[in-house]
Amino acid sequence: MSELNIIIASGNAHKVEEVKSILSPLGFRVTSMQEEGIGIDVEEKGQTFEENALIKAHALSKYTDKIVLADDSGLMVDALEGAPGVYSARYAGEHGNDRKNNEKLLTELEGIPLKDRSARFYCAIAVVYPEGGEIVVTGKCEGVIAYTPQGENGFGYDPLFYVPEFNKTFGQLEDEEKNKISHRAIALKNLKKILEKRKEREGAS
Q: What are phi and psi for residue 165, nearest 5 degrees?
């Protein structure tokens, strides 16, 4: 079967490499929109991660005849009724300022004991086909918000997201460890199963 092209609606090099590592063995040629010479800025106005992923995927699909993949992910803290949620990247008011976002999260959780600091990273991935079909899959990873940042790896809330089974935060995990349990890795593995079945059906037809 010929190679299929997937364009990722993201400029995050980490995301691009993670998607490539999981989907390339299936025969997909995975590229970013920057590699394809497409520069668009999509306003994420959805109320859920799934809505935002679909918004981004459909926006990019207008500029290409290839399969488009987009994800939206964030942190959901139970003691904060699911916040920061879809506002994770701009929780402190400035998009992508990890330090300020982490500082605000710790301030909001001040005085709350560890047993009540349960949280999860959540990821929704949307795939839109040129003919208009779409797929949405999700993944999540459970953890606890630590009292102080720990570790220099990763990005975003990783230094605060403590995973009891590893006795480490995401910021302390090596990429290989994190990519086995992360919300995005789980969502991608769920997507991989669907794409494998689709390719099998197409190959049999």
A: -65, -25
